[in-house]
Amino acid sequence: MTFRAIRDDDLVSVHDEELPAGQEGSEEGSAADAEDGSPEEAAEGSGGSGTEPSGDRGGADPVVPEPDGPSFAEEPASPAGEAETEDDEAGEDEAGKDPVGEDDAEGDPAEDAAGTGDDGPWASGDWVRETPLPEEVSEALTNALTGLRDSLTDLSFGLDLPGAEEARRAQAEILAQLEDYVIPRVHTSTAPALIVIAGSTGAGKSTLLNTLANAKVSATGVRRPTTGTPVLACHPDDYEWFAEGGLLGSLERREVPGAKPGLDGLVLVSTERLPQGVALLDTPDIDSVVEEHHEIAHRMLDAADLWIFVTTAARYADAPAWRLLRLAKERGARLAIVLSRVPPRSREVVTKHFVRMLTEYGLGEVERFVIDESKVVDGMLPDQEITELRLWLAELSVDDQRRTQAVQATLAGALDSFRTRVPALARQLEAQVAIRAQLRSDVDAAYTGALAEIDKATRDGSLLRGEMLARWQDFAGSGDLMRTLRLRKPGRFAGKASRQGPERLNALKTALRTGLESVVVSAAQRAAEETVSRWLHRPGAAEALALAPGLGRPSDELLRRTNRAVAAWQDHLVQLIRTEGVTKRAVTRLISFDVESLAVIFSVGLLGYGAAESEGRGALPQRLLHALFGAESLRNIGTKARSDLRARISMLFDDETSRYIQVLDGAGIPDESAATRLYQATYNLEVAR
């Protein structure tokens, strides 16, 4: 087995300093551990030096770098060849001159690394599970993280804009990471550490976990994908911590996998073969054909303190593998890589090429392990194949400082990632708000244009056509128009006129109302069609339109409401003439008039004002009204009547536009302040850190 498990600058040898007398290791305990195949056996094989292993490891070839190129165990940035070999030999010589003697070299690695003094974390035999932060720091971080979580919780990206789906996924990932990892980890010590095992389908993740646990705790097989529910394996002394702790606290703990995979379950098992202080988490495949497996795998990665990436000699160059490595690099997560199923004959070629790829990608410094292609028995590899990895876990378990640094680096990487991930969500929110404003503007523009059309139609005399024109000509030509004006001393035809007048007058009044209704409804129809046409050219609006298929036409209640509005306007016009129609004194001495009839005549003149006068249709009512009321009184009544008509039509259109506003409100488009809250939450977190 060849690997570069621990760099010199990562580990301070426990034998570089003399231990107090009486703390030498026990030969008997070491021998017993060796018989059980414990991690201490691997440590013993290193000569008790605690530095980078060398020599024979369970039948593996010794680490001897080739002069003509870097080996897989070699540090890519360091010179190759004899210099490293000399360093290894020097390390062996120093180990042989250890002042504590051979007995200590054969002792328990946990006891060697941590010490047995009263101040050590293992002095009492109990695990120090929680190290509270300073009160002011803890409170500041708690408030900042809680504020960030609250700002993210109720966000929605209702419009399917470019990037909206990614934003929804990122929102769920950040919330899950806050709940399952960041917030719990801020308030707990770095132990025990959670190490997630991730990789491509069929890479042997479950097999690796079973071998390290020395038990079949995770299902294996030829069927792909195999793992559907995450499996967490830990030492029995850490079982309660993971069963009740905050890490992955939102997942239900199970003893066996459920019938179906899901994001709500976690299988928790214990095994004495794993060292205390580290736990392994087996995840579904990152490139599984089951979409839900991707979400589960990434959620587990976001909740891990360290990552072990597993790939094979046949698939290490696949795109999904490098996407995961890029994610680990972006998140600043501490990473180790296992290259499994390496054919012995092509081991050198494969490892050199893989190391070159890692170095070019900026990951040449990561911990690396190689597992030869071997026979799997009962879901497990031969134990000697994972000796180096088992030793790495044991050293991580007993080295508090190294484990603390790894966990803190990953936690800091997660917090650092919020600097870009949260503002990216805010920018998507701003895009959603901007599109919503454009959609709202489309509605306003369409119905404002429709209202302008109605204003024009009620000014240029275009309404006085068809039936309305015929009714007006019948009313004016029959003499009913003049008979509405009565002398103070009525003649003999007064009674007959009073009986004939209402019939033609009512017909004209009805024609006017129908004409106005037709103009309003037609304008509303064009506005609805224009709104839908504008929306269809906006990104993400098609889905909103699908929620309300009737938006392309006026509402079913518009005609009835328009009829009532026009009738109410006609009644209001009668009241205006009755209360504000000041007749000239010279006229009032001789003539009296019927208010309702005069209101109809006034509406004809109002609708025929301007262009219609040149055709002679509006000349008569205009002259008559001017003669009765005078210019100023006529102008005041006309202004108020036109303003009232416009207000009533605007109210109708407000009811029509409310349908579109309801669709926008129901589409889950955020308000304008949502992005600001996210920016502020990100800033608060940076200040609290």
How would you explain this protein's 3D organization?
The chain is α/β, with parallel strands linked by helices. It is 55% helix and 8% strand. The chain is built from 23 helices and 11 strands. α12 (347-360) links the parallel β8 and β9. α7 (164-186) runs antiparallel to α14 (400-457). Residues 1-131, 221-225, 487-500 and 609-618 have low confidence and may be disordered.
Helix tally?
23
Unreliable runs: 1-131, 221-225, 487-500, 609-618
What is Rg? 43 Å
Q: What average pLDDT do the residues reach?
A: 74
- Structural class based on helices, strands and sheet pairing: alpha/beta
Strand content: 5-15%
> What is the 3D form?
rod-shaped
Helix amount, in percent? 40-55%
Largest sheet: 9 strands, mixed
Instruction: List the strand order in the largest sheet.
Output: 1-9-8-7-2-6-3-5-4
Calculate the terminal CA-CA distance, rounded to whole Å.
42 Å
Total number of β-strand segments? 11
Give structural attributes.
single chain, 689 residues, alpha/beta, nine-stranded mixed beta sheet, 55% helix
List the helices and strands and how they pair.
Layout (H helix, E strand, L loop, with lengths): L2 E2 L22 H9 L3 H7 L36 H15 L5 H4 L3 H6 L20 H19 L10 H23 L6 E7 L5 H9 L17 E4 L1 H9 L7 E3 L10 E6 L7 E5 L8 H12 L3 E7 L6 H13 L2 E9 L4 H14 L6 E6 L14 H12 L1 H58 L9 H11 L2 H4 L1 E3 L6 H43 L4 H6 L11 H23 L4 H4 L2 E3 L1 H13 L11 H48 L6 H16 L1
Parallel strand pairs: 2-6, 2-7, 3-5, 4-5, 7-8, 8-9
Antiparallel strand pairs: 1-9, 3-6, 10-11
Helix pairs in contact: 1-2, 2-13, 6-7, 6-23, 7-14, 14-17, 14-22, 14-23, 15-17, 17-19, 17-21, 19-21, 19-22, 21-22
